[in-house]
Amino acid sequence: MQKKIIALAIAAAFAAPAAFADTSNVTVYGVANxxxxxxxxxxxxxxPTLNFSSNKVSSNTSRIGFKGTEDLGDxxxxxxxIESKINIDGGAASALADRNTxxxxxxxxxxxxxxxxxxxxYNLSNRKYDLFADGMADNRSIMGGGANAATxxxxxxxxxxxxxxxxxxxxxxxxxxxxxAAIAYVAGAEAQALAxxxxxxxxxxxxxxxxxxxxxxxxxEVHNLGTAGTGTVVPPAVLGGLAGMKETAWTISGGxxxxxxxxxxxxxxxxxxxxxxxxxxxxxxxxxxxAYYLSGKYNVSANxxxxxxxxxxxxxxxxxxxxxxxxxxxxxxxxxxxxxxAAYTKxxxxxxxxxxxxxxxxxxxTVGGSGAKPSxxxxxxxxxx
Length: 385
Hints:
This protein is mostly beta strands. It has a single domain (34-384), classed as Porin (Beta Barrel), CATH 2.40.160.
């Protein structure tokens, strides 16, 4: 009996590696980014009840992911990824696979096709230039449409252009002399209940160039808004049920990066045909506006860097609805994967402006009503693995 037990143990030991051999292509990765934030809503005199300060620990888009590839031969590979946001500060848990999650095929000569949830090509074209990404000073407080709201009166676009969409079918070309092209279609959501419902959809494309220290990009995106409850691109509630509503945006961006410093710039222009929703001539532009972002970073030493960024949004059809944001930061690298940082940001709305500090750091934007001037100081640590 004892000999049989020993034989079975030896057999199991040799069988185990074979049973788990197919998991060798799985890579676990992620980001732990936490900060202590001191914020002020900066409410205007017209909104005194919204004027307050708060201190909090924020999990700045911390995340964990699993990805892998399988060589299929002839230069073709199967690819997959499952990525989820995690709230290190102890807040409500995020849904599994709520970030870039997909499966697809990739070829060095033919490019990559993927299906699932993914950043749009428009997003891919310019997000790399945000030197304060994923914290309170994130430029999505203004760029890509800024803080979106439930009503047209407090929105800056119908849906964010610097977004991550579900139901995506995307193609990304291989790099050709430094040039990469990407196109994605966002299919209508599956919640259609009546034949009369119109399902939302979107198209996004980008051309991205990188050669040495110079990068340059172009992006374009159009949102065809569906009726309430069925659109992939969800409109403000006031637009629900209105047929033919759509909005577009285009962006150009670029950067110059060498060992000592980098400088970046983004310009974008949005437009829409929401006029009928607010008693204006049908098809007229309501929220459309221009915005730009400038950022720079100087490496003081091998482990230290200072950063500066400025963003500006112009007014839409309503006057004094723009905003500006200035951010200043300092990074100190403890290792290749761990950085401690300090950042300050202030957003100043025009009299009727409704922009808010980014929700990426806190889970909810820092708001103070029309004309508010919110600000924040962040002290944090970022570790990648």
